[in-house]
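Repro:
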Amino acid sequence: MERRKSALTPENYTRAIISLSRRYSSTSAFPGNNYVDIGDWLLQDRSLLNATKAEEDATLFASKSDQPHDLVVVYNSGERKWDVQQYSQEQHEAFFAATSVPAAGLGQLVFIRGFISPSWVSVIGSKYNIDPEFFRRHMDFLSASIDRHAYSSPSLGSSSNNIFRLCVSTLFHRDDFGGQDLPSQRSDQSIELGTYKIKQLGSDRVCCGDSLVREYSTVCSCFSVMEQWISLCITKTDKGWAVIAWMDQGRPLEKSPPGPWTSHVENKATPLPILHHHHKMAFRTTINRLDPDANASAEVQQSTAILPLQYDSLIALVGLARRAPQDPLSMCIPLYAHAAFSEVQFLNLMESRIQIQISSIAEGVPADALRTFLYFSKILNRHAQQLKDSARALCKLAERSSQGLNGGKAESPMPKSAVRPGLGRGMGTRRHTSETETDRNVGSSNSDGAFETNDLLEDYEQLHVRCIDLSKMCTQGITLAMNKATIDESRKTIEQSKRLKKLTMLASLFIPLSFSSSLFGMNIDLLGQSTTAVMATAGRLHVLRDSVDTSEDGVDIVLVPGTGTISPENWPFADPEWLANLPGSGAGARILAYEYASPFGGTKPSWESILILGYDFLQHLSDVRSQSDPSLITNKPILIVCHSLGGIVVKQALCVANKQFPRYGSTVNAIAGVIFLSTPHRYGKKTTSLVRFRDVLEATTGKILKISNANIEQEGAILLDLADRFEGIAFRTPMLSVYELRESKNSSTTLRPKYQQLVNREACSTHAPMETVIGLNLNHHETCLFTKSVGGEIIGLNLNHHETCLFTKSVGGEGLPEFNKFIYETFHDAAHL
């Protein structure tokens, strides 16, 4: 620390900082880019450089609160009694003029409680000849631009050995109301915190004495953590020394600028007190030298805000009253201990949450497990660095104390052997108190624990090690979650292979029998017609409209209806007038329709039967393209349009084609787009999914699907497995998923019909990479008649489940722009496929 060479005035101190901020790398070896923002901030108070305008800026950063607040508290230490002085926000001139100082060689402690104005910075800085770096680091929120801070912080540790920082964590607890999206909450809070620092702290909205918050983290649905700073600067005075402690804890938090914690406070979140322990705390008490009513009546009570009100009695309670007036380290020990106790509570909370997350993996990997572990690890790494810096600062203070502030020998609070470079000190070194000190202790044999320097260093070292260990636990949790997910995926693959084998065996038996029955029952008159018809197996793919365009630019539009829904002949794609409006080669497209009998006949209906149709549809689609002109097989693109449960057939076909790509690769590569009209994809868990799919089937066929209780779990797994497999192939083709906005009748009983929205947005979305999701203003039956949409919107068209295939029935054409845009882009891209 440098000796004070000459008295500074507040005006000269301000001019020095502004002058530094105007040095540039082109002209100086010590550029001041990182001081530009604090220089501009000081210039807001024009009275600092122009005394004639003092009245104009008298209210700058002044709080309008009626509640009094002691902004600056000064403790002048003494051998017996300490003198305390307090100053409000407008008394900066009185503070500068005050001449009351401790006796020669004794120390002074200056608490700054909350945000301060430029006038206070200039007064405190000039009176104690403080390095401006102290103010710049504490107000780092002013330098948000990279051009200003230039990644200069944190700087070299040795560059400012008299400037230190402590981090105090406050835990917030609230009841778990459930239904919280924690990943989204954390992301929003991170953005909101950045906005708070720029638009609140970096503006004139913040007032003298307001509390500041540096970090805010949501640990779980019940707990969150608020982090605040205490910046320390140790400087020499004319007759002794002074410690400047600038605290973020000022006025009650609810009366300070709002941030991401505000919503938690409004939801009755309560701060937990920071609990200390000292062996004399049961036999002695602390006395408030100043009024604590402001913090006592606050909604969010801050434990740290009490320290400046009773610091001299706190020093006495922990046995530092004799050393603190002569030693800056002893003066700061209660602040270091306070920060350490807050860190203990934080790490205890983090350990309990990490263990809960790891335990939950045994039951199944939670959806947000990986993100939660990464989030925890990021917080713990930040705290580990803060603990390392605090321990280093404590070592530096101990070294200076052993040498004496004036360069001579002084009574050391810790033997020299206990101080080592690095994080802290050796675990085996202990400080032994004298017999006199031992006699004075109550309830302790030889140590004041966390309030002794060597013990405090050991505590910080242990906290750092524990923080690193918890971060490693997060890494282990990530590894465990990934291994569990891999095992679950392997198990699912094995089960899928068994089901696929079963389906293959059924298909091998069913397809030849179906082919034979279809051959003898087919309409012979069709053989003489020129229209291409494909002989059916379980179903048939026939041509509704042959291609008008025989060039390579032609398109095949394949229509797949649901069970019991509107026939493809009545869809707009079969209407020549509507086709004429399609862009490019769409007007001359060939229209094919896949028709099939209900797969839910028999005494034991199963959803596996509709999956078999997927094999059949894929084979028909491959066959019909191979019967075309061989030169056009690989060039003619396909647009698949499916409605209701017909989409289940298409998804199964695409999954099979992906698994047997060498065989069906040319067909898959020709698909230019897929449109799912009111096709359910996923409804939560197995039982829920089965019930909702059954509702769709009941609404379209009027029949109730009866499945035995023993098979409910298995049938639900079939539907969820298809959804998982389809999401797993990540089908990278333009895809439009349409849901209805109007309710559909889904009861076969005419006396008490029941209406409900069968396929909503969540149920229809496949989460495919190139998927677009819109709604239609029709019911489930008519979404394929999309122009019937009544009063629709681009993102939500008001149709119910039955009407989504009737999309051309939209009154006034409302709701069709998004649909038409998809069709236009699909046909445009098809020309380049």
